[in-house]
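Final report, results section. Input specification for complex C-07:
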Amino acid sequence: SQQGEEDPQALSIQEGENATMNCSYKTSINNLQWYRQNSGRGLVHLILIRSNEREKHSGRLRVTLDTSKKSSSLLITASRAADTASYFCATRDTDKLIFGTGTRLQVFP
Amino acid sequence: DGGITQSPKYLFRKEGQNVTLSCEQNLNHDAMYWYRQDPGQGLRLIYYSQIVNDFQKGDIAEGYSVSREKKESFPLTVTSAQKNPTAFYLCASSILLAGGAKNIQYFGAGTRLSVL
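Structure output:
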C-alpha cells in the first residue's frame, strides 16, 4: 500500500530555477520525510518534518507540511544540474515507512 | 567506513532457480528492510526485521524469503515461486528509538536482478 502520492510525476527545469514537488498522504502522521534517489542508486534521506512543524529549511531545501490538507511540499531553490534525481516522500506506518511514487526532476544546464 | 553494502550489483536468474541477495550493515542498526522497485515506480516493502531471529512480511512477501541470524546481515532469497522477479532491490536499515519517533532509513546501493 502506498500512502504518499507525489505530484507532478516528472518535472523539467533550467538551472537556477526553483523546483516544487508535492506529496499527499492518507492517514495521520507523526512525521514526514523526503528522500532523493539518483538513477540506479539507493535513496538518501534529505529532511524530516514533524507533525507539529509547518516549515523546515535545510540549505537550498524548504519543506512545508499542512496536516489539515494531508500534504507536504519540497522546494529546491536555485536548482543545479546535480539536483537531477527522483524525490520521494515517506510517512510512518507503525514500525515501517510507506513511500510515495516519486517525482522525477530533470535540471538542464 | 560505515554503511550498508549490497551484493552483487547485478544478478541474473535462470528459470526455476533460487537466488540470494546479500545485505550487510556496520551501522549497529536494529532494524533492516528489503524493498522492490520497478522502473519508474516507488518502493514496495518485501520484508523487514527489527531484531535478530525475527522478521515480518511486508506488502509483497510472496515468492521471497529472508533470515536474520546476525544483527549485521539480512539476506533476501528470491525463490522460483516469484514469477516476475526482474526489478531493482534495495536494502535499508534504521535505528529503533523508543516509540520509533524518527525511523530515518539508510539505504544500500541496490541489486539489479534480471531473468535469463
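The two ends of chain A are 37 Å apart (CA to CA). Chain A has no helices and eleven strands. This concludes the modelling results for the funded period.
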